[in-house]
Specification:
This protein is an alpha/beta fold. The protein has one domain (8-213): 3-Layer(aba) Sandwich (Rossmann fold), CATH 3.40.50. Helices cover 52% and strands 13% of the residues.
Length: 214
Amino acid sequence: MGDAGVTVSDYIIAVTGGIASGKSAVTGFFHELGIAVADADIAARDVVEAGQPALDEIASHFGSHLVVEGRLNRAALREIIFDNADAKKRLESITHPRIRQSLIEQCKAAASPYAIVAIPLLAEGDPAHYQWLSRILVVDVSRAIQESRLLARDNISQSLAGKMLDAQATRAQRLAIANDVICNMHDLSSLNESVKRLDIRYRDLAKSSRAKAG
C-alpha cells in the first residue's frame, strides 16, 4: 500500500482476520497504547442510523417497510439479502462507500502517531478501494482454533460454525494480503506483547514516512 504524502494522521494500519480470530483483542491492546482505532463494524451501523442518507436509499430501493419509527429493521433486511447476491451487491453499493469514507475521516482526525482501522472483511473486498491504507496486519489463527472459539462464543452448532467460516476468505487468502502477521494461537499476554512490539515498529515507520513526506 502506498505511503506517499503521509502526515501524522495519514499512516493507517488495517487490522483484519477471520471470524473469532481475536481482532477486537488486538485493536483493544493498540488502543491501550494510545493509538486511535476506527472500526468498520461500528461505521456500518452508524451510516444507516436515523436521518442518514443511506437509510433513505435503502428504503427507496428495498422498501419503506424496512424503516420502522425512523430506524432500520436489520432482521428484515437480512432476510431480503440472504442468498440473494444481487440484493447484497446493491446494499453494499449503498453502504460501503460511506463506511470507507467514515473510516478515512476518523483516521485522518486521529491525534496518535498512526491510526488503526479494523476491517474484518478486507480480504474479501476490492483492493482498489483500500489504497489509502499504509499497511495490513492480519490476525492469524488456525481454522480449528477459529471453530473452537466460535462454538464457545456464540453457542452454535458445529455445522453452522463451519458454514460461517466457509463464507469468509481462507486463511491463505488473508495471509496473501498481509504486510504483517500477528499470531493469536496462544494466551492474551503473548498477544499483548506482540502488539507492543508492533507498536514500536509502526511508530518508527510512521515517523519515517513523515520525514520522507516533509
